[in-house]
Amino acid sequence: MSMTTRAAICREPGRPWEITDVELDEPRANEVRIKFMAAGLCHSDDHIQKGDAAMRFPVVGGHEGAGIVDAVGESVTRVAVGDHVVCSFIPACGACRYCSTGRQNLCDAGKNASTGMFPDDSFRFHLDGEDLGGLCVLGTFSEYAVVSEFSCIRIPDDIPFEIGALVGCGVPTGWGSAVYAAGVRAGDTVVVYGSGGVGSNAVQGARFAGAKNVVVVDPVPFKREMAKVFGATHTFADAREAHEFVVETTWGELADHAIITVGVLHDEVIEHALNVVGKSGQVTVTAVGNGSLDAHPGMLIGYQRRVQGAIFGGCNPLHDVPRLLELYRSGDLKLDELITRTYRLDEVNQGYQDMLDGKNIRGVIVHEH
């Protein structure tokens, strides 16, 4: 049996998102059907649509989402029909080597993120006889989707779905980049390159961890102003100006951390980040793109600098998503302020254009069922 659901799909790299009806299979064992209420417009989906990142096409977009469990397959134990859930863009099986050692962000069950296939190499979305994967085996740009129960995290019913959607990727990725991957400590000086949907949360994480100086570098005035709302102590449009400030304020010792969360990674920002951290400093790379690391080993050895890649900010979604929502409830984490504008599903291309134009911290699709 199957149902019809309205979704935004991309047929091939470079083509805009297209709104169409697709067929959706019933959930199988250990799978659930989600009625998505909200989906975040993360930059990663734009990378897929532009062809900057590998993905099987055609694809149902969206990997930030929150909604209601509509149906469950056999053997599902993590959630039940009627539960409000956030979908983690990396599932957490709880049993693989990485989950069992506290590294759920590296769960082996996330291996099919770029194909949208389920573990048995099958698909749940179909269009005119063709199989479609959901991005990260989710597809939150669809009103309904079938996903693994390992991707579901139950949330309290009073959490707005628009807020819930953001903690499935952007919020923990940014927050964790500062708190976990970088390991910011009280009194540190931190430089964050790029203050969009992920970078704003790196700022929040660094400030909450006790950083004395949280320096943001972003060319967009709106984003620099918003960075102050999220806890930035100083903002600059130019990396060289930020570097000069760091030299002056630290008496030449330089920064403890540089966190790269720009929209598209490139060589220049990596170079700036390496140069701005001092002895035993760390560069944390969260952004994706085409940048490469081209540095003499002496840059790392002499000052004992480190370069650390980060996915999901090093967060454990089953633990950290609920904890971040509790920080939101207590007023310690600003999530309402992240949402610049909401869109209908058929406005998805406009939403991404607004993001690229620097108008949004985060746009959110609100599904109209």
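The record above closes out task 2.4. Task 2.5 opens with a second protein, given below.
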Amino acid sequence: MSRTYVDPASITPARVRLSLFALAIGAFGIGTTEFVAMGLLPDIARDLLPDVYATNPELANSHAGWMITLYALGVVIGAPTIAAGVARFSRKTVLFWLAVAFTVGTLATAVLPSFGWILAARFLAGLPHGAYFGIAALVAARLMGPEKRGRGITLVMTGLTVSNVIGVPLATSIGQSMGWRAAFLLVAGIFALTAVAVALVIPRVKGNAEQTLRRELTVFKRPQVWFAIGIGAIGFGGFFAVYSYLAPLGTDVAGIDPAHIPWLLATMGLGMTIGTLAAGHFVDRSVRRTLYGYFLMMVVVLIGLYFAAGWAPSLFIFIFLVGFASSGIGPAVQTRLMDVAGDAQSIAAALNHSAMNVGNAVGAFLGGLVIGAQLGYRAPIWVGLALTIAGILIVMASYRAQRHLAPHERL
């Protein structure tokens, strides 16, 4: 990779588009690796926990959900520590090595023999997640310029949502027919492609040579940063409480054939993709209204999902709406964090994904808890509703606290 730094303002529009596409490939891989376990949960439980599955499939499924939780925990820990530690290095170099780390961690998931070792691999695979997304968001925002930064961030995150239309259903189908390990081998290949794409097309954008780990960590002294983290960690947990157990919701409640679960996942992904593309324009106009609008939509949709889940056609409709309603929260929280973080932009951009994966871990854990308590596969929907409402309350508290700031500190 060239050592010559490039001024983002001098990059041609074609190079900008190629760069955003390369970043989106990584997001596509991340979305596939993060969400594919949800579609293959029964297959993973049956293979890795055969004795438990034979006697209590619900308990085995909830234990297999630990793969989701451990990956999310890796994101939570890795995002701030890696992003803060590499803030002074070239964005391109960091993105390349993060893609390599993804490749190795996902490959380990596919080949390690036991449930315990696979849980460890999922934790390690999650470590680069937040740092990749955070740094990719900074690069995208810089390439697009301040007036279109919201659209730049959402274009990268579109890779995440498109993964739910194509990557997750495809990997789930492969996992069902060839074994769940084959799905993770596919994802490892996507990450290897990402590393190549980053090396070839991403311009060498400078980091902040004067930034240190200590200076980046001062971001945690800002109350508004904690509010934004809370919005993602609690509010977005409502989505994951539902999504983590979507496969058994479809098969056991709506009576969908397991072979059709990839179509259900694709429907969720389609809603997420459309919602994300729309959110880019809304975020550039008002982060606050975007947060309120998408969260309130999520409340209405989750209530409808509970009553619609028993019939396959209505389940598909409301799963699409869940995907749409949830998809605007991520870009809005990402932009909010970058607004309130001051000079600590690297760690702020990554913290969004720490927050989202706290939501992932909390949603998956609480959803598994109510399933393990024999409350049925609809119960996580109520968990999701409670977490979503809590997210709205945190948004309200954040903007109420902001009123007490000096005018020049308000955002």
